[in-house]
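The authors assume throughout that readers already know how a fold can be written as C-alpha cells. For illustration, here is how one protein appears when written out as sequence plus C-alpha cells.
>
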Amino acid sequence: MLRPAPRNLEVLGSTYITPHMLRITLGGEALAGFPKDLESAYVKLIFPNAGESRPLMRTYTIRHQRDGEIDIDFVIHDNTGPASSWALAAKPGGRIDMVGPGAKKLISQNADWFLLVGDMTALPAISVNLATLPQTARGHAVIEVVDESDIQDLPHPEGMELHWVVNPSSQTEESRILERVESLEWLEGRAAVWAACEFSEMQRLRKYFREEREIPSSLRYVSSYWKIGFSADQHKLAKQEDTECGMR
C-alpha cells in the first residue's frame, strides 16, 4: 500500500507555554483537506538529519486544531535532540513535512470514573482528554512535570482532581508517577485508565493496573512515548519486543 505524500506545512508561530513546553503552530495551503475534529490524534513530523541519508520521523499529538492550522507541543530539555532543536529554531515562514493523521487516543468513557496519568510528553493528550470528558466526570489526573513553572491551567470537569508531580529528575529512572498513583483514593465503580510516559514507568503502571487493580483491557490504555537512554528508533524496537513478549 502506498503511503500518502507528506504535507509540506508552514510554521505560523512559536510560543512558549511553559519553560519546558514550546508550542509550534503549523498550517498553510498544504493543510487544505485535512480532516477536522482531530485534537488528540497523532501526526508524524519529518526532521532533517544532518549527515544521514534518511530523515528522522517523530510522532506528536495534535494539541489544538483550528481552520487551516494545528498546534504541536514540544517538550524542551537541556539536552536537545534533532526534533527539539528544530522546534527551538523554528520561525514563521519555515517549513516541515508531516504525514498523518493517525487515530485519536482517548480514554474510554464507558466507566464510572476516570484516571489519566502521564509525564510532559503526554501532557498534550491528557489536556485534550480532560477537555473532552463529560462535565459530570469524576476521577484523577496525575501529571509529572520538570518544574513547578511547567504546571498548566487545564480546563477540566469539576469532579476531576489534578495532581501535579514536580520531578526535575524525570530524565532518569526516578519517576514518581506510580508512587503518586498508588496514593490516590480509589473510587467506587468501574475505572477507565489512560496512561502514557517513559517506557520503564509504563511497564510498572501496566503491571499495577493489570494485576493489582484488575482493570480490563477494554478500559485500559497504557503506552510509552519514550525510553531513557534510547533513540526514538531504539524505543520503537523496545516497544515491539515488549508487545511480543506480552503475547507469549
